[in-house]
Write a structure and sequence with these properties.
Blueprint lengths: L1 E7 L4 E8 L2 E5 L6 H9 L3 E6 L11 H8 L3 E3 L10 E2 L5 E4 L2 E7 L8 E6 L5 E7 L20 H16 L7 E4 L17 E2 H7 L9 H9 L9 H10 L4 H8 L2 E2 L1 H11 L2 E4 L3 H6 L6 E2 L6 H8 L7 E4 L5 H9 L6 E5 L2 H7 L8 E3 L1 H7 L5 E4 L3 H6 L1 E2 L10 H4 L8 E5 L4 H12 L3 E5 L2 H8 L4 E2 L9
Parallel strand pairs: 3-4, 4-5, 5-6, 10-11, 13-17, 14-15, 14-16, 16-17, 18-22, 19-21, 21-22
Antiparallel strand pairs: 1-2, 2-3, 7-8, 8-9, 9-10, 11-12, 20-23
Helix pairs in contact: 3-5, 7-11
Length: 468
């Protein structure tokens, strides 16, 4: 028997490869499925089942493509309704895989179809639990992503309490928990950086599994402090539930190399977003006018989802050399399937063509302190919790997550100096505002550099500030 966690850090997502006697099950696969197929072929094995723990909101799963390419059926738990052929399992149903068994445990709460899968080894021992978004390491799934008119957040949290107590906490203490996500995912509030653990340790350390915890206490604690989910979540759920275009088609369309002339023509004719995924400081030094920067070397896909609200939006790419296909794949993982191509030769080719190049001024913490001796407009684009923890005295909060909604608060006649925690998000914000006609300055190194300099008075008091 083999259990392999295939963890994708940029999505904080865990898929699973389970093999016994040449038969394989894949749980919660990513959008690009060829690696699973290749791995099984290398092992001389055949993919028998594709298990889904629920309709994922934060990424588009590869279940449809993987099933079509291998013939393996897609399995969901009770209450799931799909737009493609699938097995809707019953609670307690057993699926045989070589010499092991996989038992369906219906665990509603995160969503009503949420299901965990219990692995029973060759000796009949309950060995591993693939808990999806029901139980994370240090946390549990948020209960606000599957609301319906007849189900409140509190109702779903109540179902989650029952699922944890009646289906999961009664399992043997030495069962290994394999969740669908780790730290950085928006599907929970405060997950651990660890991606596996024993059930016993979770009982001892996970706030939501406390002994003697009442349902009322659980509901209050699980629903407290939930940030609004990213706008793209419902669209990902729809794609996972109804099906989607083949990843091969998406890749063939998106991986087209376009000359500077063809690239500019496509941008003008289609209204596509020009997305530059290079390092923030490289972007700031020179970029195609009106392009926006979301660096590939960070939480790329979630930020695309937060900042480009329409999944049907056509996109043109500017990337580091050799990163073109990776970028198309990472966009497709969260449902952005309409990439039209990339700038062949990157920014250097654009410059060589004689086309216009724009830039954004970046300053260090010392220069920021010098400029703040005079009255300038500094904004902090970190998340509210970061801002509340500590911020420059008198500098207002303007979270990047909501920049599209709150842009009307800004004055186009002013210059805004922008910082985040380390420089990744501030360049995103700067690029978006620059593309909308604002004059901006970026702060290199963000609040980490600001704090390290010792040149600023900071506070954890959230005073009522205004951007106008």
């Amino acid at each position: 028997m083999k259990i392999e966690q295939i963890y994708t850090g940029c999505l904080a997502q865990g898929a699973y490869y389970i093999e016994s006697e040449g038969e394989v099950a894949i749980i919660d696969p990513l959008r690009e499925v060829q690696p699973y197929i290749t791995k099984a072929e290398k092992e001389g094995a055949k993919i028998k089942y594709v298990f889904e723990t629920h309709f994922h909101a934060d990424f588009v799963s590869g279940h449809v493509d993987l099933s079509e390419k291998t013939g393996a059926p897609i399995v969901y738990g009770p209450n799931a309704v799909t737009g493609f052929d699938s097995i809707i399992a019953t609670d307690g149903q057993i699926f045989e895989l070589g010499k092991i068994k996989i038992k369906v445990l219906h665990t509603p709460g995160h969503t009503m179809e949420s299901t965990s899968y219990l692995l029973i080894d060759e000796s009949g021992k309950e060995t591993a639990l693939f808990s999806g978004d029901t139980l994370f390491i240090g946390d549990v799934g948020r209960p606000d992503l599957a609301q319906k008119s007849d189900l409140t957040i509190q109702d779903l949290a109540g179902h989650l309490f029952d699922s944890l107590r009646n289906k999961i906490m009664v399992l043997p203490d030495d069962v290994t928990v394999y969740p669908a996500h780790g730290a950085g995912s928006a599907c929970g509030k405060n997950m651990s950086k660890e991606t596996t653990d024993t059930l016993l340790n979770q009982k001892n350390t996970n706030y939501a599994l406390r002994a003697n915890m009442t349902k009322e206490e659980f509901i209050k604690e699980v629903t407290d402090g939930l940030a609004p989910p990213p706008q793209y979540f419902p669209e990902n759920v729809k794609m996972n539930k109804e099906g989607y275009e083949s990843i091969d088609t998406v890749m063939n369309r998106g991986a087209q190399a376009l000359s500077p002339i063809a690239f500019e023509a496509a941008a003008n004719e289609t209204g596509a977003v020009v997305l530059d995924t290079r390092d923030p400081q490289d972007f700031g030094a020179g970029f195609v006018p009106n392009s926006i920067n979301i660096g590939l070397n960070g939480q790329f896909a979630p930020w695309v989802g937060a900042l480009i609200p329409d999944l049907k939006q056509e996109i043109l790419l500017i990337t580091e050399a050799g990163k073109e296909e990776e970028t198309v794949i990472r966009l497709a993982r969260v449902g952005y399937d309409n990439t039209l191509g990339f700038l062949k030769g990157g920014l250097e080719a654009w410059k060589e063509s004689g086309a216009e190049v724009d830039s954004i001024e970046s300053i260090d913490a010392a220069e920021l302190a010098n400029r703040m001796k005079n009255e300038i407009n500094v904004i902090d684009v970190r998340r509210p919790g970061e801002y509340q923890s500590e911020h420059i005295d008198g500098v207002p909060s303007f979270p990047l997550d909501y920049i599209n909604d709150n842009m009307a608060e800004l004055d186009r006649d002013k210059t805004y100096t922008i910082h985040c925690a380390g420089g990744y998000r501030s360049m995103m914000a700067s690029s978006i505002l620059k593309a909308r006609g604002f004059d901006v300055v970026d702060v290199k190194g963000g609040f980490a550099a600001i704090n390290k300099s010792g040149l600023f008075k900071t506070t954890d008091y959230v005073c009522p500030t205004t951007l106008k």
